[in-house]
Design goal:
Oligomer: single chain
Strand order of the largest sheet: 3-4-2-5-1-6-7-8
Helix content: 40-55%
Number of strands: 8
């Protein structure tokens, strides 16, 4: 049984929209504190530096902090949109390198627990933005909440950020287990973050990939590694993205390499006649 029912006229309208839409990349972690938002921000800017039009969605709906990392002070956020007080255009914020940012609310408990109808409404609104960008990056909240899983389910690619910490590895595995078992997502890319060097990153990936293959029967793709960089803390304090504040830092170079990797990922195939719009894909899939 689907989790909710979309009104028939709305669902048909979504399916009939034409266009290819943006490539959608969800950045997940399972566990908090692994640098996921820094990855989402710096990857967004690295893609924008390659000439891509970028929309970054802060999908930590109740505790968003993308704007904080970039030193932005948005007047409005998604809660104002869902309340009918503001339009999406009024809420969007321009960030570095011309990226567009859709800020989440911070400290509003109701946003962290959206009911199915409001979540569906948000997805429908996002579909109106998708045609104007090349990439939609979604900075997911930590954990395996319903909104996290639904956002990840609708993405073309799911990038799982993991560190060389037992809790991070365990929670990343749990996230992929739920997504593959209950939501039908079978492909994940893994980014080793805050590692000493590439060798440690590859070793970390190999450990997780072996467990996923053995117990979940899913293949993992190694997206690369981001080294632990002393310049990152300084960039965070200055409320600037590392890749802009310190473009020659080793981690900045790694983020540019990650962007090249992402650009090389194949366009996901769709069934004949199926629209690729974010909202229609999400609303059309029952968990």
């Amino acid at each position: 049984m689907p989790m909710y029912q979309v009104p028939k006229d709305q669902a048909e309208g979504l399916r009939n929209r034409a266009g290819v839409g943006a490539r959608i990349l969800a950045v997940a972690s399972g566990k908090g504190g692994v640098g996921k938002t820094n990855v989402a921000v710096n990857l967004s800017l690295a893609l924008a530096m390659r000439g891509k039009r970028l929309l970054l969605l802060d999908a930590d709906l109740g505790l968003g902090n993308v704007d904080v990392l970039l030193g932005l002070s948005p007047r409005y956020h998604l809660a104002h949109v869902l309340a009918g007080e503001k339009t999406l255009d009024e809420v969007l914020v321009s960030g570095p390198q011309g990226i567009q940012i859709l800020p989440a609310a911070s400290g509003i408990a109701e946003m962290a627990n959206l009911d199915a109808r409001r979540l569906a409404g948000l997805m429908d609104l996002l579909g109106t933005l998708e045609q104007s960008v090349d990439y939609l990056l979604i900075d997911l909240a930590a954990g395996i909440g319903t909104d996290v899983l639904r956002f990840a389910q609708a993405a073309d690619h799911v990038l799982v950020v993991v560190t060389n910490d037992p809790a991070s590895i365990t929670d990343a595995y749990a996230f992929m287990k739920v997504m593959s078992r209950d939501y039908g997502v079978r492909y994940f890319s893994v980014l080793a973050n805050m590692v000493r060097d590439e060798a440690e990153g590859k070793q970390l990936f190999s450990r997780l990939a072996a467990v996923a293959q053995r117990y979940l029967d899913i293949p993992l793709r190694h997206a690369g590694s981001i080294p632990l960089d002393p310049y990152l803390r300084s960039a965070i304090r200055s409320q600037q993205a590392l890749i802009e504040r310190y473009p020659n830092a080793v981690a900045s170079q790694a983020f540019r390499a990650l962007a090249e990797t992402v650009l090389a990922w194949p366009q996901p195939q769709t069934r004949a006649g199926e629209p690729r719009l974010f909202a229609s894909r999400l609303l059309g899939r029952g968990a």
